[in-house]
Amino acid sequence: MPTSIHAPAVSFQAVSKEYATPHRGRFKALDAVSLDIRPGEFLGLLGPNGAGKTSLIAILAGLSRATSGRVLVQGFDVQQDFAQARKRLGIVPQELVFDPFFSVRETLRFQSGYFGIRHNDDWIDELLHHLGLSDKAEANMRELSGGMKRRVLVAQALVHRPPIIVLDEPTAGVDVELRQTLWHFIDRLNREGSTVLLTTHYLEEAEALCHRIAMLRQGRIVALDQTSNLLSAASHTVVQFKTDQALPSALAGFARVTGRIVQLPAQSVAEVEAHLAALREAGIRIDDLEIRRADLEDVFVKIMGEAGANDAAVAGGVR
Ligand SMILES: Nc1ncnc2c1ncn2[C@@H]1O[C@H](COP(=O)(O)OP(=O)(O)OP(=O)(O)O)[C@@H](O)[C@H]1O
C-alpha cells in the first residue's frame, strides 16, 4: 500500500537484474540501483548502449522482474500491486508494435478500454491535436510513416492520463518537427504536474528539458544531480575546431574526435593558449575554431571516462 501522498513518484530500491546468458554466464545488467523520482520532476536517465536503461524501465513497467530489490510507483509495488502501479504509468516504449488493421482512433480507443475507460474521445482528440495527428485519426496504422507511428505510441501511452510519463528513447530516428511537437507537449504536461522519466541519447535534449540527470554505466548509477549542478561542476572550457590532419600525440590522448571535428577540454585560459600553441607548432591547419563552455555531452564523456578509469583501477588492484 502507498505510505503517503508525498511518496516519491517512482522509487527504485536497490534494484538488481541478472540475465543468464550462454556466452557471459550470469550477467549483472543492473547492480543495486537506488533512485527516487520526485513528484513533478523531469528526470533524465542517461547512459551508453548497454548501460541498463531499458532493463530498468522494463522492471518499472512490470514487464521484467528484478532479481532483487523493488520498485514502487506512488507507493505501489510494481510486482505485488501491478494494476495500481501500471495505471499510474504512461510508458512510451522504444519498439513500434501495432495491429496494422486498426485505425489510429481505434488503437487509442482499444488502449482506453484496456484501462477500463469508456467514452474517451474528447481526450483522444486532444492528444491527436497536440501530437499533430488530427488528420490521421481515421487512417489505418499500416498507412502511417514511422514518425507518425511514433506519435501514436505517445498518444497510446497517455490515453489514461497517467501522472507519470516514461519515455524510452522517444526521439530515436525521428525528424526535427516531431521532436519539437513532442517536447512542447511533454514539457506542457510536466508543467501541469506530470512526472517525466526520459531516457535519451540526445544529450542536448536532456540538457534542455531535464531538471535532474541520473547517469548509468554498466548497471550502476555513476552520477545523480541537478542538470545545472552537473554543468557548473564541469567548469571547463572546450576548444573546438575542424581539421583533416592527425593531432600531435600530446593532444591526441585527451581529444574527442568525431569525423573532422576535434574537441579539447581546457581548465584555464593558459591551457587554451597551450593547446593552440601545440597545434601551431605541429603545423595543424584548423577551421571553424570555437571556444565554448562545456555542455552536457562533455560532462557525460568526462563522467563515463572517470568511472571507466576507476573500474580499471579496481580490477587491476591499484585501489
Ligand atoms: N534478455 C536479455 N538477456 C541477456 N542479456 C540482456 C537481456 N536484455 C539486456 N541484456 C543485457 O543487459 C545489458 C543492459 O541492456 P539494456 O538494454 O538494459 O541497456 P540500455 O542502457 O537500454 O542500452 P541501449 O542504450 O543500447 O538501449 C546489456 O549488456 C544487454 O546485452
Structural description of this entry:
This is ABC-2 type transport system ATP-binding protein. It comes from Lampropedia hyalina DSM 16112. It holds the Pfam family ABC_tran. One of its GO terms (molecular function) is ATP hydrolysis activity. With 319 residues, this protein is α/β, with parallel strands linked by helices. The chain has a domain at 234-315: Alpha-Beta Plaits, CATH 3.30.70. It has helices at residues 53-60, 82-87, 104-114, 121-130, 146-158, 176-191, 203-209, 227-233, 249-252, 269-281, 296-315, and strands spanning 10-21, 25-37, 42-46, 68-73, 76-77, 89-92, 164-168, 195-199, 212-217, 220-226, 237-242, 256-258, 261-266, 287-293. The strands form 3 sheets. The protein has a 6-stranded mixed β-sheet with strand order 6-7-8-3-9-10, sandwiched between helices. A hairpin with a 3-residue loop joins strand 1 (10-21) and strand 2. Helix 3 (104-114) packs parallel to helix 5. The longest helix has 20 residues, at 296-315. The mean pLDDT is 89. Residues 19, 21, 27, 29, 47, 49-55 line the site of adenosine-5'-triphosphate.
